[in-house]
Amino acid sequence: MTDPTPSTPTQSRTFSPTPEFTAQANGEAPLYDQATDHEAFWAEQAHRYVTWDKDFDTTLDWSNAPFAKWFVGGQLNVARNCVDRHVEAGNGDRVAIHFEGEGGDTRTITYAELLREVCRTANALESLGVRKGDRVAIYMPMIPETVFTMLACARIGAPHSVVFGGFSADALRTRIADAQARVVVTTDGQFRRGKPAPLKPAVDEAVSGGDSPVEKVLVVKRTEGEVAWDDARDVWWHDVVDSASDQHEAQPHDSEHPLFILYTSGTTGKPKGIFHTSGGYLAQTAYTNAVVHDVHPGTDVYWCTADVGWVTGHSYIVYGPLANGATQVLYEGTPDTPHQGRWWEIVQKYGVSILYTAPTAIRTFMKWGEDIPAKYDLSSLRLLGSVGEPINPEAWLWYRKNIGGDRAPIVDTWWQTETGAIMISPLPGVTDLEPGSAQRPIPGISAEILDDEGKPLHDPEAVGYLVLTKPWPSMLRGIWGDQERYKETYWSRFGDKYYFAGDGAKYDANGNIWLLGRVDDVMNVSGHRLSTAEIESALVSHPSVAEAAVVGATDETTGQAVCAFVILRSDARDEGEATVQELRNHVAKEIGPIAKPRQIMVVAELPKTRSGKIMRRLLRDVAENREVGDVTTLADSTVMDLIKSGLSSGS
Ligand code: WTA
């Protein structure tokens, strides 16, 4: 493997924790030692962070590897852990959620109120026929009802499948079909950049036709927009939830009972339904939220800016922080509505003390300028976090200086939909921080970097593949409906002892791990995983396109950007810019606006190996305006000249 980030600084500054921070931090140095007894360590965390209705008898059953079972024999109710127990402990008046709508509407929800709302929602879902084990699809914006619905599903034991509200009707349809969801919960629309945008029409389209497994669609009124209505299928939230009883008896579920499915892009066009179970997932999300985010319930105001449609929202808006009884901000909108200081205004307004966000957002704020955050009082912030892609040292330093007041530690947290919770990250009260590096596996996690042959690499700067060497509680339990693909994707590249993460990595001279991006055909655009194959098949589904190749090209703001090369069918007319626009919109319609290519280049040929494999590496060179690399394995070495001359002549 070659190093895609030759810019790793050789001399960088590190930042040590202050004694004041260390004195109050949840994550302490002895945890690393304690974790050498892997199972005993995790059993202890599971007892500390989770309330069990029935204690587990076996910490880890790995006898059927790579299918793990954690905390076997244990029973719990995840929703009761996230809500009821805080009320029972006398913290019912504590704020769980400060909701801030994009238009400035707000709602303050205490734990006592959250309990009533979750119970009502659970009763309403049951009245619509949802039973333990049934799947519920959730296609909603960032509003409190989304959190109520997820927790209500957890309470019933009905695994949810949250589909990001920016995905298309087609994407929703395939996810509903794969999980065989019986109910969809949605809204009439959502506010986006000051305007209402409809959401329900996509659901209508996704469940249309005779073959949909969906029996009921539950609709929250959010934007008051006109909606089409099917009396037999559609139900208003305010009709069934508001009138439902706010008492709901929750049953304990097995530790390994499925909690949710979340789809993520793989290297083929078909998204993978990553599924997670209850006990292990809850234990690790709560533990990491405590020791990495250093959340102190009752005093901190925590804000994770992710969308609940992604795993970060699942683990660090809903399950981890609520299990810990944290107070958090939930913001519906975009960072620049109605102005570019909106986030900082929110930090100031609620006294946010912990902010968890993504590098792409930080780079956007850098572009907007430091004058904007400087207008607000950000002195409440005491810890910053980053997730989703490598954070370049420059952005890290900007974040620390302009948002963290040169004071707040930054935790750069590496993990994945599949890992369920944070895996590699500094502990803010312990670690000397190294900008740009996620540093070390947290206590309880072990990783290695392997070369092509599977040999561990320890030399500084030697680039290899990141693997995880031991099972962990919040690990995925498989791919919904396709366990062969689970084994093949994650447990075969280096044999069945290593979980293959799909990321390149290296150590620096201080033993810190640097993550170097994906090594497979998955792109990372603004922290969102997109598969080249999925976008290629969307392009080829357009009647004008004969063939398509997609690459992720480096982009200053979004990390990577989608660049597509297409060959038009011989009977299609190339209308230049109009054709390109039409194809871009087609991808947005097929997958969602986040997948819209930044650039589409119409070409006469694509570079292929003799075995017919597209050489994306060469296309990436073109997309990034580089000298084209080695072409000797091409079936026809003149193809690249053809592509380049065609592009420079403006076709
Ligand atoms: C990337 C998001 C470097 C990585 C939680 C991983 C990161 C993929 C980091 C998972 C980080 C996430 N540093 N790279 N701190 N965090 N990644 O499933 O390539 O949406 O494999 O989970 O994002 O993306 P996913």
TrEMBL record:
Its cofactor is Mg(2+). Gene3D superfamilies: 3.30.300.30, N-terminal domain of ligase-like. ATP binds at G388, E389, P390, D412, T413, W414, W415, Q416, T417, D503, R518, R529. Residues 89-480 form the AMP-dependent synthetase/ligase domain. CoA binds at R192, R193, G194, K195, T312, S526. Mg(2+) binds at V540, H542, V545. Residues 534-613 form the AMP-binding enzyme C-terminal domain. It is an enzyme of class 6 (ligase). It catalyses: acetate + ATP + CoA = acetyl-CoA + AMP + diphosphate. NCBIfam families: Ac_CoA_lig_AcsA, PRK00174.1. PANTHER family: ACETYL-COENZYME A SYNTHETASE, ACETYL-COENZYME A SYNTHETASE 1. Belongs to the ATP-dependent AMP-binding enzyme family. This is Acetyl-coenzyme A synthetase. It comes from Oryzihumus leptocrescens.
